[in-house]
Specification:
heterodimer; A: 126 residues; mainly alpha; two-stranded antiparallel sheet; 5 helices; elongated; B: 292 residues; alpha/beta; 6-stranded mixed sheet; 4-stranded antiparallel sheet; 14 strands
Chain lengths: 126, 292
């Protein structure tokens, strides 16, 4: 369900929080969907269960997941497109930074880059 | 609950003129899985030995479960499991005999657990220990420290000779051993990826000092590598706060930085009129940067 890279510089709990947040914001994880148990994920990825718990607790605090008695965590029921725009923008900010950086290195103008972005955006609407 | 399991206070250890440990202070709390990193000879093994009262400190003191480590009662000793770097297995007996001898020293011994792990970890039971491979001995040595469900499990390089599959099995067992926030595990390893997977806290031992201690996540979030790019040449003596290393080549500079925070990025970017790219670092990279 998740792509966890323990050796990456991004802490493991952060990787889980980011991915779940993105999947929920993007609608791939619908309200009510049950997440794998802490133990299951820990064994599958060979990471400390406490790290998974930490991520789930943070997601719960953010209102994205809810705890059920004796059952796995599930995606909280919320309004459609629940996350505030600012929150969702934050999810892509890092990627945009990388993109701008690469474009500058390649001496691509802002106009050319946004032009390409516009075209790609339209393609995605089909 | 707030009482630490282990309290290490200003511990020093000298071997003649050589200082092996200098002014080490740390706590082990219930629920901790602490990964200990350090170069060869940094003092990790000495730290374990002094901590467990196997070697008296030259300065300072260690308290384990409320008792001085040099005069531990049997009841406290029975709550500790230790796997030394050089195993202390008997050569002439079989694996099964060794475990029976170890079990006899403990009032409670989880026979079924050890039976299961012997099978899962493929440890030979009927073979004399002296004819076993290094990896088999290492697994057996770990088993001798697990059967009594110690509250404090200390392992000095427990997986150095294990293959990746055996290491994963070991980690799973380690998680079980630390479950429920009641117990604690300390282990040293050069296999940084295992520490990254398992440890909630990290101690870095450098030249006999506890150079860094804290949450694994905090360490990863606080040490990063910066790539600074400017259209103009950057000064050789570039001022970057908390820089561990710095290299400047024309308009490009790279620096490993500790105590990183997002505010620092804007500061550098505006001060130098430069692009600042932040590269998060894995533990291995951090370890190397901290030793430059």
């Amino acid at each position: 369900m998740f792509v966890l890279k323990p050796l990456s510089g991004v802490p493991i709990y952060r990787q889980i929080v980011d991915q779940v947040t993105r999947l929920i914001a993007g609608g791939q994880l619908a309200a009510g969907t049950e997440l794998p148990s802490v133990r299951e994920l820990a064994l599958q990825h060979s990471v400390n269960p406490m790290t998974i718990s930490k991520a789930y607790a943070l997601l719960e605090a953010n209102g994205l997941l809810e705890r059920q008695r004796g059952k796995p965590m599930r995606v909280a029921a919320r309004r459609r497109n629940q996350a505030a725009l600012a929150e969702r923008l934050q999810q892509v900010e890092h990627k945009i930074e990388e993109l701008v950086h690469a474009a500058r290195q390649l001496e691509i103008s802002k106009k050319d880059l946004t032009g390409l972005l516009d075209r790609k955006w339209e393609d995605g609407d089909d | 609950m707030t009482e630490p399991m282990v309290s290490i206070d200003n511990v020093g250890k000298r071997f003649g003129a050589k200082a092996a440990l200098t002014d080490v202070s740390a706590r082990v709390e219930a629920g901790d899985v602490i990964g200990i990193l350090g170069k060869n000879g940094a003092g990790k093994t000495t730290l374990f030995e002094v901590m467990l009262g196997l070697s008296p400190p030259s300065a300072g003191s260690v308290t384990i479960f409320g008792e001085d480590c040099l005069s531990l009662s049997n009841s406290v000793k029975s709550r500790i499991g230790f796997v030394p770097q050089q195993d202390e297995l008997l050569g002439m007996v079989t694996g099964a005999q060794q475990l029976a001898i170890t079990a006899a020293f403990h009032r409670s011994w989880d026979g079924p657990l050890i039976e299961r792990l012997l099978a899962d970890w493929a440890v030979p039971t009927k073979q004399r220990i002296q004819t076993m491979s290094v990896g088999e001995r290492q697994k057996l040595s770990v088993l001798t420290a697990l059967g009594h469900h110690p509250d404090l499990l200390v392992l000095d390089e427990p997986v150095a000779s294990l293959d990746p599959i055996a290491r994963r099995q070991f980690l799973a067992q380690l998680f079980d051993a630390s479950e429920g926030q009641k117990r604690a595990v300390l282990f040293s390893s050069h296999i940084v990826s295992d520490i990254e997977r398992a440890a909630t806290k990290i101690w870095i031992v450098k030249d006999g000092r506890l150079y860094w201690q804290g949450d694994t996540d905090a360490l990863k979030e606080s040490v990063v590598r910066l790539h600074v790019r400017s259209s103009k040449p950057l000064p050789q003596n570039l001022a970057i706060a908390n820089a561990l290393t710095l290299q400047v080549q024309g308009g490009y500079a790279t620096a490993a930085v500790a105590q990183w925070g997002p505010a620092a990025r804007d500061d550098i970017a505006s001060r130098l009129h430069a692009d600042v790219e932040v590269e998060p670092l894995g533990l291995e990279e951090i370890f190397i940067e901290l030793h430059k």
